[in-house]
Amino acid sequence: MVEFYGESFTSRLILGSALYPSPEIFRQAAEASGAEIVTVSLRREGAREKTGQDFWRLVQSLDVRVLPNTAGCRTVKEAVTTAMMARELFDTPWVKLEVIANDDTLQPDLFGLVEAAATLTGEGFKVFPYTTEDLSAAEKLLAAGCEVLMPWASPIGSGQGLNNPTGLESLRAYFPKVPLVIDAGIGAPSHAAAAMEMGYDAVLLNTAVAKAEDPPKMASAFAQAIRAGREGFEAGLMPRRNMATPSTPVAGTPFFEFGDA
Fold first, then answer.
1. Has 96 been annotated as catalytic?
2. Catalytic residue (choose from 96, 126, 177, 217)
3. Cα(43)–Cα(135) distance, rounded to whole angstroms?
4. Among 32, 152, 220, 224, which one has the highest count of C-beta atoms within 10 angstroms of its own C-beta?
5. Rounded to the nearest 5°, which phi and psi values hold at 95?
6. Tens digits of residue pLDDT in 229-239
7. Residues 164, 133: contact at Cβ < 8 Å?
8. Using CA atoms, how far apart are residues 159 and 84, in angstroms rounded to an integer?
9. Long-range contacts formed by 54-60: CB under 8 A, 24+ apart
């Protein structure tokens, strides 16, 4: 089980809802993933337009926890305003907070992120901040009232996987009791498994599933990889060594000579 803001979930896969070929394929992928939390973007839903209402009904039919997203916001004011609208529309204080600094990498604006997080937590929001592996930013976000951190693996939609595994391992070690969710850049089930083996609590996916040739099948593959990675972490992975260690010890074993007596 994984817990976010006092709510427990069996699945450690959080699924994004953008970029799918059709609403029906998204529905199939969501069901195949077993995800209990789905992110939605207020901008994409078109607020109260008919297409937005149809999509909202589809999400509601999945019986999942909705995590609205301030995707595409470039300023603190824009992110806070979008979060306020999302709380009204989706009737939840949960929000995945994005404040973007760079158009090419979609890297988080850490300064704006901390400011927006402090404002929103002060308004009663449960903030899931899209951040980096930077330790000082993590400390400031926790001080601002965040109880979950969502560091990127690599740029959104890049599929590069864990670009800075050492930094991610340090973040996990430095905040052992804080729920940490890998968000952005995961391109293959093996990437997700590697994150879970580090001790991360969950993985948020979108493009790798939505753009697959068979999204439902890929969603299922990610779900299995995340479970396997987490079980490996909980079982206790063997430490890495610089040299070989024989699985059959040499000392104390009998040697036999064959040939003429």
1. yes
2. 96
3. 31
4. 152
5. -155, 130
6. 999 999 999 98
7. yes
8. 31
9. 54/23, 55/17, 55/23, 56/89, 56/90, 58/23, 58/26, 58/27, 59/17
